[in-house]
From TrEMBL:
Domain of life: Bacteria
Residue intervals of the Histidine kinase/HSP90-like ATPase domain: 279-352
Natural source organism: Thermaerobacillus caldiproteolyticus
Protein's name in the database: histidine kinase
Annotated ranges, domain Signal transduction histidine kinase subgroup 3 dimerisation and phosphoacceptor: 177-236
CDD domains: HATPase_UhpB-NarQ-NarX-like
A molecular-function term among this protein's GO annotations: protein dimerization activity
InterPro entries assigned: HATPase_C_sf, HATPase_dom, Sensor_HK_TwoCompSys, Sig_transdc_His_kin_sub3_dim/P
GO CC annotations on file: membrane
Length: 368
């Protein structure tokens, strides 16, 4: 956006310099001419910082016409070029209703100037009227395409949300099925192995034999393996950093976002509880979703590290081209509450260049 504004300003400055050069070649009165020129240029630079530029566009056209009225030149093509340039900018900057008001105000101002000039040709008004009609048609087309683009972005966002929801539902269904299988194994195989081990204990007491000891060891090992299998089935498929990697891989594969993922020394060996793993995953997921919705850039920087006291640190940053005031919505507020529940901290702030989600999660066993 900054580069575009520089290019626009440069084009306007070149056209205005040519406009002034033509006047300086044909008149000796410069004071009022320079004053009006300064007002026009100053007004143009305010276009980039005001929310409603309609009045400024009308004012710029009126100043150009006023200058031409005070210092008329028979053949000054820069007037037409300036008018054309201001119209082109207004086409892309004003909505349909405001652009129509702009064209009407400019045309009425031109009519007033033409009535004051005896040497002005009526063809100027006819040409301006035709050009205004063409400009209105082009403006309607531009904003129709803009509305279509916004509708497409909304539909795309809804599609992504539904796709993520479908993914979460499939994942929940898999976890429920794994939990059911683990419960069945625990209730059937585990209990039967335990009963078998007790019977072998009783047999070995009544009739001590070496074979019974070997069978007890075999049953005991089988019972331990069954317990490990049940525990593995009850645990989520991907936890903590592994689930974050899967999330990033999924988003990049769908070309939604480009993530620069950095892990610092020691972070891969951090042991988190199941609740902390879920919080880490959800916070980074929400931060990436927030970046996809609101950031102008598709680049996001995710960093995981360890603090000086061994806690897990994380940050999610995305570039900001036009800093705007933001409020904590439901998603960001929910992120803070999740991190607070596990004893962590979360900071959400914005600089001139970045939007940052930054926080820590305490690691069990670290001294405070």
């Amino acid at each position: 956006m900054v580069k575009l504004f520089i290019v626009r300003s440069l084009v306007f400055a070149i056209l205005w310099m040519g406009y002034l050069y033509e006047h300086f070649q044909n008149t000796n009165e410069f004071s009022l001419l320079l004053f009006i020129s300064a007002c026009t240029i100053g007004t143009y630079f305010f276009l980039a910082i005001v929310k409603e530029p309609l009045i400024l566009y009308i004012l710029i056209d009126c100043l150009i016409l006023l200058e031409e009225w005070l210092y008329p030149l028979p053949k000054n093509m820069y007037v037409l070029l300036l008018f054309l340039y201001i119209y082109l900018e207004a086409i892309f900057q004003l909505n349909t209703r405001k652009f129509r008001l702009f064209t009407v105000a400019t045309f009425l101002c031109s009519v007033a100037i033409t009535m004051l000039f005896q040497d002005k040709e009526v063809e100027w008004l006819i040409a301006l009227g035709i050009f205004s009609i063409i400009s209105i048609t082009l403006n309607e087309y531009v904003y129709e395409r803009e509305e279509q683009r916004e509708m497409y972005e909304q539909l795309l966002g809804e599609y992504r949300r539904l796709k993520r929801l479908n993914y979460e539902m499939d994942r929940s269904a898999r976890l429920e099925e794994r939990t059911r299988i683990a419960r069945d194994i625990h209730d059937s195989v585990g209990h039967k192995l335990t009963a078998l081990l007790m019977q072998l204990e009783m047999l070995s007491i009544n009739e001590p034999k070496k074979e019974y000891d070997e069978l007890k060891k075999l049953v005991h090992d089988s019972l331990e393996e069954t317990r490990h299998a049940v525990k593995a089935l009850k645990t989520e498929e991907n936890e903590g950093i592994s689930s974050v990697l899967q999330l990033i891989r999924k988003l990049e594969s769908e070309n939604h976002i480009m993530v620069h993922f950095t892990t610092k020394q020691g972070v891969l060996s951090v042991k988190l509880s199941n609740q902390q793993n879920i919080v880490l995953y959800r916070v980074i997921q929400e931060a990436l979703t927030n970046a996809m919705r609101h950031a102008q850039s598709r680049e996001v920087f995710v960093t995981l590290g360890r603090s000086a006291i061994g806690d897990l640190e994380f940050s999610v940053k995305n570039r900001v081209f036009e800093p705007k005031l933001f409020q904590l919505g439901f998603g960001l507020t929910n992120m803070k509450e999740r991190v607070k529940e596990v004893g962590g901290t979360l900071r959400i702030f914005q600089t001139d260049q970045e939007f940052v989600v930054q926080g820590t999660i305490p690691v069990k066993g670290n001294s405070r």
